[in-house]
Specification:
The structure is a single chain. The chain has two domains: about 120 residues, no CATH class; about 60 residues. About 50% of the residues lie in helices and about 10% in strands. The protein contains seven helices and four strands. Helix 3 runs antiparallel to helix 4 and helix 6 packs antiparallel against helix 7. It is globular. It starts with 11 loop residues before the first strand and ends in a 14-residue tail after the last helix. InterPro entries: DUF6611 (IPR046719). It holds the Pfam family DUF6611.
């Protein structure tokens, strides 16, 4: 398969399909904490020279709202952990702390917050199924590897289930069965893709 193009996936951050349309303050906070989709997330982006990257993350079906929050807290740690590091560094610098103190304290906050987030997530990170794909113009994907189209089809199945649940066409049990089907179709541990052979 040629690696050109995204075959309809587009460039976006995260999957749509967060159930419900509540606009109250608490609902908005819940959405920010849990993400837009109960089943996980999708992201895609285009880089230089036509390189495209795709990531589909599917959480284990049946996890609770709190478990989703803990997962997202852990998965987002590289971003918010760095923000915390910078905030501590700037705060200590502004009160005249030495460079050594600033570096040591900020780094300690980064490490401790990461350990805490990981412990809070428990065994959940190991149960998450992820499909990562990078395509490069002029290179073909090895046989058996996911393609932009296969990822798009899987994403469409999840989002379709979300929309049908919102309209009342299917019930939560049927929605979770679809989620389970997608989850089971993704290998438990996906190693890095082998180098793509040049055409």
């Amino acid at each position: 398969m040629s690696s050109h193009g995204s075959e309809g996936l587009g460039t976006e951050r995260l999957g749509s399909g967060r159930l419900g349309t509540e606009t109250t303050g608490s609902a908005i906070i819940d959405r920010l904490a849990e993400g837009p989709a109960v089943w996980g997330s999708f992201s895609a982006g285009a880089g230089r020279y036509g390189v495209c990257r795709y990531r589909l993350v599917v959480f284990p079906p049946g996890i609770s709202s709190m478990q989703r929050r803990r997962l997202r807290l852990w998965r987002g740690w590289p971003v918010w952990g760095l923000v915390a590091w910078l905030a501590v560094a700037v705060g200590l610098s502004s009160i005249g702390a030495s460079g050594t103190t600033v570096l040591a304290t900020a780094t300690a906050v980064l490490v401790v917050s990461g350990v805490a987030a990981r412990r809070t997530a428990g065994t959940l990170p190991g149960a998450v199924r992820t499909v990562d794909l990078t395509t490069i113009p002029g290179y073909d994907l090895p046989a058996g590897m996911p393609t932009p189209k296969s990822i798009a089809d899987t994403l469409a199945e999840l989002r379709s289930a979300d929309r049908r649940l919102e309209r009342g066409v299917i019930d939560p049990v049927e929605h979770e069965l679809i989620w389970q089907h997608v989850y089971d179709s993704i290998p438990q541990r996906r190693r890095r893709l082998p180098r793509m052979a040049r055409r």
